[in-house]
Design a protein that fits this description.
The chain is of the alpha+beta class. The chain has one domain. 39% of the residues lie in helices and 16% in strands. The protein is built from six helices and seven strands, in the order βαααββββαβαβα. It has helices at 17-23, 27-52, 68-71, 146-157, 165-173, 193-221; strands spanning 2-5, 87-92, 99-104, 123-128, 133-138, 159-162, 184-187. Helix 2 (27-52) packs antiparallel against helix 6 (193-221). The longest helix has 29 residues, at 193-221. The protein is elongated and about 85 Å long. It starts with a strand and ends with a helix.
Length: 222
Amino acid sequence: MFELYFDERGEVAIENMETILRAFPGLADRAMASALKSEGWRLKNMIRLAVRRGGPGGGTWKKLNPHTGVLSRMRSRTGRRQTVKNFKMVWRGQKGSKQRVPQYKEVMLSTRKAPLTKLAGAVRYKYDPEEKMVSIGFLHEQGVSDGMLRLALMHAKGYKTRITPKMRKMLFALGFPVKKSTTTLETPARPLIEPVFREEKSDIMINIERKFFKNLDRYMKA
């Protein structure tokens, strides 16, 4: 998450902002709030677009392994590990004596190739009128679970998953045997928020200042 202010607290600031606020009380506050909300909305969409493109900078993340989508089911929404089933129950037998039996799959693969696509919708922006700032990133808002926030943080830094004997058996059953010498599964770091901010930083100040004065002029003429 990153935050945008209109004063010296943040990475971007408008020169003589305090003087302008005193000269145009009320109108300047409205113009400031509108400019920050507009830029927050734009940056939120830029972050979501980076996910859909496969990473900041036009696709810098490696494609997902075909097994990744299946293995991701091993972790529940609460973060706890769970068993992934490689079968579905079907009816078998003669009419009148059919029974439900498991139908196993030899190999389970996922067609999902782009990383973090499920997290794109968790990117939000929020304006704080008290602090006069806008926050952009993975925010704890309605529709964004603790699990999604935790997953976003884990992917930003990268992490390792230790392969337990039970997991090794399950991986084999899913058609994903691993060598005895392989003791961990590594998920590479996929930072998102900070890289987008660095890419957009030069435009953020220009956009906010332009929108602020445009809004202020419109309000004064209304």
